[in-house]
Design a protein that fits this description.
The structure holds 2 protein chains of 2 kinds.
Chain A (H helix, E strand, L loop, with lengths): L2 E14 L2 E14 L3 E5 L6 H8 L7 E6 L2 E2 L5 H11 E4 L11 H11 L4 H14 L15 H13 L5 E5 L7 H16 L5 E4 L3 H4 L4 E6 L2 E7 L5 H15 L8
Parallel strand pairs in A: 3-8, 3-9, 6-7, 7-8
Antiparallel strand pairs in A: 1-2, 1-4, 4-5, 9-10
Chain B lengths: L1 H15 L1 H22 L1 H4 L5 H43 L4 H41 L12 H28 L2 H5 L13 H27 L6 H31 L2 H4 L4 H9 L2 H39 L14 H10 L11 E4 L20 E4 L2 H11 L12 E3 L5 H7 L5 E3 L7 H38 L4 H34 L9 H35 L3
Parallel strand pairs in B: 3-4
Antiparallel strand pairs in B: 1-2
Helix pairs in contact in B: 1-2, 1-5, 2-4, 2-5, 2-6, 2-16, 4-6, 4-16, 5-6, 8-9, 8-17, 9-11, 9-12, 11-17, 12-16, 12-17, 12-18, 16-17, 16-18, 17-18
Classes of the chains: A alpha/beta, B mainly alpha.
Chain lengths: 255, 562
């Protein structure tokens, strides 16, 4: 399998000389093409910082991050936006849809930013919305649909441009358990059928159980790493709970 | 408890909503400075006709009041929308609507009161600046001193609190009427177009065009015959004009929706979709504010031009009739008494005595027969003077000397009478004209007024920039680069600034030409066009500067978070 993302010994410090907070303290891992990888950890473990560094929203203090051989820590300021719109797809916890646009237009937005030909846009939206089961609500506004539907629209926006990797930040965070399951199944489908590489940050064991591989962070370091392999999702779920118990301390609020 | 809460809110609001605060301060300051000028004795005593200036300032301050009313209404509604979620939460927590609207009222009265005091202070300075400019024009020494005009404060207070209370009552009504759900989700909702189907829209568009044309036609007819002008008809035409402008902007925004939202290939081109959705999500507010701005500009263009026309008239008359500081005429030719008095009381730099001969008509004055210039006093006689005298007078006035060959005469007449004479005399006679000075005062009034309106427009746009921040930030997250984003912002602002200019320019030019019919005797067509060019040029220049400043600040507001 081809390595799509390579994180090499990155560190992220906050604060000054006398009072340093190590949000990330030497993390290295690889993500292969078509993988669905989860990052877990308690609040303050550095998982959001890690995601921000990969998504070029934040910069690392040291170390390198390669996306398909391109070192994203070296990209010049003026090229970051272009890199982001061409290579990355985002799913945010609070959806981040524009209330002024219909569901359809929200998906179209990323395509217009990428200057996709106008005729292509319609086709692509129709195709993706059928796969994600939102073709009936395309003409509605975000405030007229449910949270689950909003997040599916956000997922459609994340994948419609065929990004190299989709970054999801607590995507089920503001959904009820039924909508959360629905969304995770869709993400699984995006991963399996549409061959999307997904990196998801979560502290919810149920969400994490949909992943192929999970990294556990503690105090800015990788604490543990488990793989689903051929296991059933239920067994994998229990395994996750065991690791979380081992994490101890802060991990109690994970349960 | 409630009082405490509302005091704390108002304090926090003064920080959070400093744009709102600033708007009210500027509104009050402008209103106050205009009122001060209107009641100022210093200014009205400058010259006898300055009384008219003070009166016209009062007229302008009425327009300013309208702008203020609209702006205060706009910002208070804007704040209400921003805080509706908070009010919704209060309601969910079990606070009664009555108490909430009471709290809102208390807060606003507190903010309004403080802003009023600040506004008066700022307005005092503004007044000093305006006054020193005017005094300078009249070459009067003016010492800047803080003078507190109670009458102006009183008038401003009545205007301001009148507007403020009306707007506040309207907001209270809105709070009471709105359901909790709508309060909680107010910021997410988009406005629906007032006109649903396109047929209705086309009908409204046609009605608006018909109204505009009819208004211009009535206006033209009324001013064509100045003696039988009916005030009522003019009032009707003004109302038709305003209504026509509003309807035009309502229907045109619906056209925009049709053109850009329903046509997919156009919609998906570049940043069209984002832009037009930004505009159409507030379609009703947008068409109303565009209509209001357009009405303002129409007033500036027409009013400014009328002011310039008046000044043309005034200047032409003063200069033509009395080009010298002191003019004394006698029948017997003895000036000694006058000379003595003048030399005693004034410093005379130059003095010249000349004779005017009364001769039997050589037929020149016949040219005026049957025209508006004929006053009947020239019957059968004409006044002539020697070329030496004439050249000496020209020298004093700073004009070049003129030469005359045998059998030539110079006719000294009003500029506008030139045509009459040239048509009458088809010989080789030379005709010299007197020039006119620039009409500075009218220029200043129009400038101040344009600046007032443009300031308010800029504030309105900048208060919106806060609202747009979230949208533009998402674009940034999705990977739109800064240059492109600034281009989108530019387009959005350009749209907002440029569209309201359209109708006023088209409508005001024929209106000005109609109105100028009554000035035909004293003002030339060339002067009328020059007036239009001056006012329009000034409007576009000042407006353009404000547009660029707003654009720069808007970019900063959006990108500043990094």
């Amino acid at each position: 399998m081809k390595k799509i993302l390579k994180v090499e010994n990155i560190q992220k410090y906050y604060g000054n000389k006398d009072n340093i907070t190590k949000a990330i303290d030497g993390i290295s891992f690889d993500v292969e093409e078509g993988e669905f990888i989860g990052i877990m950890g308690a609040s303050g473990s550095g998982k959001t910082t890690l995601l921000n560094c990969i998504s070029t929203i934040d910069t690392v203090s040291s170390g390198h991050i390669y996306l398909e051989n391109q070192d994203i820590t070296e990209i010049k300021e003026e090229n970051i936006a272009k890199f982001r719109r061409e290579n990355l797809g985002f799913i945010f916890q609070d959806f981040n849809l524009l209330d002024t646009l219909t569901i359809e237009e929200n998906i179209a937005l990323i395509l217009t930013i990428n200057k996709v030909a106008e005729k292509e846009i319609d086709k692509k939206i129709l195709e993706i919305s059928k796969k994600l089961g939102i073709e009936d609500i395309l003409n509605k506004y975000p405030y007229q649909v449910s949270g689950g539907q909003k997040q599916r629209c956000a997922s459609a926006r994340a994948i419609v441009n065929n990004p190299k990797i989709i970054l999801a930040d607590e995507p089920t965070g503001s959904l009820d358990s039924k909508s959360a399951r629905q969304l995770l199944e869709i993400m699984e489908e995006m991963n399996k059928k549409m061959k999307a590489t997904i990196l998801m940050v979560t502290h919810d064991p149920l969400s994490a159980s949909y992943c192929d591989k999970i990294l556990f962070l503690k105090d800015g370091k990788i604490f543990n790493k488990i793989e689903k392999g051929e296991k059933q999702r239920k067994d994998f779920y229990n395994e996750i709970l065991d690791v979380l118990a081992l994490l101890g301390g802060d991990a109690r609020d994970v349960r | 408890m409630l009082g405490k809460l509302s005091f704390r809110n108002a304090k926090r609001q003064a920080k959070d909503y400093c744009i709102y605060f600033l708007t009210v301060i500027i509104s009050v300051a402008l209103m106050f400075s205009f009122n001060s000028i209107a009641v100022s004795k210093d200014i009205s005593e400058l010259a006898s006709w300055m009384k008219y200036f003070s009166k016209s300032i009062t007229g302008i301050s009425i327009i300013i009041i309208l702008v203020m009313a609209w702006l205060i209404n706009y910002t208070m509604r804007f704040m209400l929308e921003k805080r509706s979620k908070e009010f919704g939460t209060y309601e969910i927590l079990g606070i009664e609507k009555k108490s909430i609207s009471k709290m809102f009222t208390l807060e606003n009265i507190l903010i309004g009161g403080v802003a009023f005091i600040f506004g008066i202070v700022v307005g005092t300075f503004l007044y000093q600046i305006f006054t020193s400019i005017i005094m300078n024009l009249f070459e009067q020494a003016y010492k800047i001193e803080i003078e507190f005009n109670l009458k102006a404060v009183g008038i401003t207070a009545i205007y301001f609190f009148g507007i403020f209370l009306l707007v506040l009552l309207n907001c209270r009504r809105k709070i009471k009427k709105t359901k909790v759900y709508d309060l909680l989700y107010a910021d997410k909702k988009n406005e629906n177009n007032i006109i649903k189907n396109s047929k209705g829209n086309i009908a409204i568009f046609i009605v608006s065009v018909v109204l505009l044309i009819a208004a211009l036609y009535i206006n033209h007819k009324e001013f064509a015959d100045a003696n039988n002008m009916k005030g009522l008809n003019i009032l009707i035409s003004i109302i038709m004009l305003i209504l026509g402008i509003y309807l035009f902007y309502i229907s045109i925004s619906s056209f925009i929706v049709k053109r850009y939202i329903e046509n997919k290939s156009r919609k998906y081109k570049k940043d069209n979709m984002f832009l037009y959705r930004n505009l159409t999500s507030k379609i009703n507010t947008m068409s109303l504010s565009m209509g209001t701005i357009a009405v303002m500009f129409t007033i500036i263009l027409i009013g400014g031009n009328v002011a310039l026309l008046m000044n043309n008239l005034l200047n032409n008359e003063i200069e033509m009739g009395y080009p010298f500081e002191i003019m004394v005429s006698t029948v017997d030719g003895d000036f000694s008494e006058y000379k003595e008095y003048i030399e005693k009381n004034t410093k005379v730099t130059d003095m010249y005595e000349y004779r005017l001969y009364c001769i039997k008509s050589i037929g020149i004055s016949k040219a005026l027969e049957g025209t508006a210039f004929n006053s009947g006093s020239m019957d059968g006689i004409e006044y002539v003077m020697s070329l030496t005298d004439y050249n000496k007078l020209r020298e004093i006035l700073g004009y070049e000397k003129v030469d005359l060959q045998n059998n030539e005469i110079i006719i000294n007449c009003m500029k506008t009478a030139k045509e009459v004479f040239t048509e009458y005399i088809k010989d080789n006679n030379e005709i010299e004209m007197l020039g006119t000075k620039v009409k500075i005062l009218a220029f200043y009034i129009a400038l101040i007024f344009i600046m007032a309106t443009a300031t308010l427009l800029a504030i309105q746009q900048l208060s919106d920039s806060e609202k747009y921040k979230y949208r533009y930030e998402l674009l940034k997250k999705l990977g739109m680069d800064e240059l492109q984003m600034n281009r989108t912002i530019f387009k959005q602002l350009f749209f907002y600034f440029a569209i309201p200019m359209l109708v006023p320019i088209i409508v005001s030019i024929p209106a000005i030409i109609s109105v100028s019919q009554i000035f035909k005797v004293a003002v030339t067509l060339q002067e009328i066009w020059r007036n239009i060019a001056i006012i329009l040029g000034m409007l576009i220049l000042v407006y353009g500067i404000y547009f660029i400043a707003t654009d720069v600040q808007f970019d900063r507001n959006i990108n500043g978070s990094r």
